[in-house]
TrEMBL record:
Residues 1-26 are annotated as: Disordered. It comes from Platysternon megacephalum (big-headed turtle). The keyword Nucleotide-binding does not apply. SMART domains: ANK. This is Ankyrin repeat domain-containing protein 45.
Amino acid sequence: MELVEATQPADTGEPKEPEYSNPLLRPTLTGDVEGVQQIFADPEDPDGEKAMQLLMEKDIVGRDLLYAISMAGQSAVIRALAKYGVVMKDKTARGYTLLHCAAAWGQLETLKTLVELEADILATTFRGEKARDIADRYAQTDCVEFLDWAEAKQALRTFITHIQATIADPEKVQGRLNKEDKNMSLSACRVKSDWLENAKEPTRQDFLDQKQQLEDIMLPIFTKLSTPRPPTAKSTRSALNCSKI
């Protein structure tokens, strides 16, 4: 029987296409929003099924394609991806977020987009650095100023929410606050919430001043909440009965 030598196809020197490349790379990193939308929105697109998996595929330190998109400053792409349910709150193994990356690269508009999408501006890395600290380390002044502004705004909003939740908790207010106290607290919160919604180009100092005003209004209320409840008739009778035993 004649042996036939197995041969390999001749190497022509032409670059070989990988079996499967990430179809999201080009549109996301070049800002091709329509290309991104087509991949996610078209059910007949063969790349659509793998789009989310490829987007969230992580490297050895926990970074996915979103980190490259943030560093490249592709804010419109981030907005488009958010509409398809992509979460922008992931962290790497060392605690770095998309905000940290955008801050390091000075991508101000991307920072604004991520904050609007409720990225955590207080998240810290393994070194205890917030995105604001990273921006400061790399002398990204505009980013530092914006993140200081955003943090002051969030602090005011969080304080309002805290007050509303406290006043709505019967266990905390029963026997300590009267109806007038509750109404005054909720009214103060409404005023500050309205200000947040309607203020035209507020500064960081404006947010700090509004929060301080609210703290001053709430000081006597919180003082009442921190004092022990006065004994009720029922608890007094129980104490007397116990003393007779």
